[in-house]
Write a structure and sequence with these properties.
By secondary structure, the protein is α/β, with parallel strands linked by helices. It has 2 domains: 11-112 and 205-229, ATPase, nucleotide binding domain (Nucleotidyltransferase, domain 5, 2-Layer Sandwich); 114-201, ATPase, nucleotide binding domain (Nucleotidyltransferase, domain 5), CATH 3.30.420. It has helices at residues 53-67, 87-104, 113-125, 186-193, 208-220; strands at 3-5, 19-24, 29-36, 41-48, 77-83, 108-112, 129-135, 140-149, 152-163, 177-179, 200-201. The strands form 2 sheets. It has a 6-stranded mixed sheet, with helices on one face. β7 (129-135) and β8 form a beta hairpin. The protein is globular. The chain starts with a strand and ends in a 32-residue tail after the last helix.
Length: 252
Amino acid sequence: MKKETSEIPIERSIELPKKVLAIDTSTKACVLGLSDSVSGEIRTATEIVGRTHSEIILPKIMTLLKDCDITLEDVDLIVYGKGPGSFTGLRIGVGVVQGLAFGLDIPVVGISSLACLAQEVFRLENKSHAIVALSARLQEVYHGSYAEIDGFMSLVGKEGVCEASEMPQEDKELSWVGVGSGWALRSEIESGTQISVDNVFDIPHPNAIDLLSLGINAFQKGLFVDALSAQPEYLRETVANLPKTASPPSST
């Protein structure tokens, strides 16, 4: 079985933000970034924290802001990694985003964790077609395919979660690369997609640089919401049909 999701963009316009805070807690890494369009500076801070996101995320944000010599009140927009990824990490991250943005009365933009990984491969390796797969549970993967348009990796079709061998077929005429931990199941993915990828990049977590660039681009297209509308994107299927002998899924 597959579960897919898509979103309908809401077109609107607003003054472009000058200072943008990026937050991603979809993995074991706490990924933070700050973009200042006035100075042209981008600062990032990434730390592997395991399951301690709730303990360190706010202090890490305040340290980043202090290092950039700005206050929280100077932030105009928050971009957050909306998943898929760790259930616990996503809940913590989205809760922080909602609280900060609501208090500041600023908009937020949610960016797919899969899209961030695809964007990094384009930025660093100049690969314009990427099939991203992240390990979910057992033989399942979160998946999404991306193609570069005007410097940004854009979703081809829909993101979803399914057995690796059931991933949707892709265009064989294009040169694809694989990205993410799910490619540990390379033979199963290639069987499902009917694609033999040129290379595989096992990127462990999103990069704040890509989260910021995708987020600001989405903001310019009007794809932002108010603080309390920020939501995680789990993509995970229910476990009702799993064999009784299977271990229960992890909560993270």
